[in-house]
Amino acid sequence: MALLITDKLGESGDAKTTDVAQCEIMAVKGLPGMMSQDSLYQDIFKGSEKVEILGKLPSLLWAYSEASRKYVQELTSKPNDQPESLDRVQKLLGILDSAADHLGNEDLKNRLAQHIKIIAQIQAGHLRAEEFETAFLPEVTKMEQLAGPRRDSSPDALLEKAMLDRELDKAERIKTGRSADIVVSVDILEDVRNYLSQEVMTEGISSVLVIDSAGSLICNVGHKIDLDVVSLAAVAAANFAATEQIARLIGETDFVLLFYKGHNESFHFLRVGAEYIIVTIFNNQLSLGLLRLKIAEVAQVLEKKLPKREV
Question: I need a labelling partner for 99 at 20 to 30 A (CA). Which of 200, 202, 261, 278 fits?
């Protein structure tokens, strides 16, 4: 695959052809008019609702902006060295392109195409660091305007960082040919659903969800029909990931159990092995102690029933 790049430094103005591999931007395949539509990260949002992707987009854009500005800084301060931030820029471009595909956002795809074109020019040696900075930073500023207000100082910032870490981990799995998501067969799914219905769904429990650590819903049983289970799965996984940051502050690796008490109903979250989380919604008439004992037993059973992530 070749990429057509205009040599801005040449006097003739002739276009030169540079191999994509030489530009070291294989992580962003699929940008319109630039590379193959067989995007390296095309499956990263597979199965995601548009509202979920839209919720992640501002954080992804700000993360890309931060990585891009660091990339420019490294290029200008050490022009002869390979910038360490390039890999992160590539991954985030790939993730954003996948998001734009799933959202049908042609404006975002066109903006990303402009970014990759400029990056390709500097990587191919067709731009000096100062010229790259002049051309690239205004485009980064446009991305920041698209992202909206930054939330670094808000209580949601930790959740957003956890979400970003998960997306980058999924991107790395896809890049290295590993599965980004756990594949659960129909037989296992039915077995788990039947088990939960028979052993867990007692009076006082309205819903039980099994999700994976990436925020994908595995199965849901219960009678709380107005529950947005897709959003709950994503938020629950992000919440667990965020508490890992808190756990490290006190010397723990992570927390295996979380509990949120409401006025009428409460949430109980328990990690099942390294890959899954079981979420239980129950009313406050149910004994928390009994629930914890029951769910602990259920977690041991589910850990044996559910498949492990491919490594």
Answer: 278
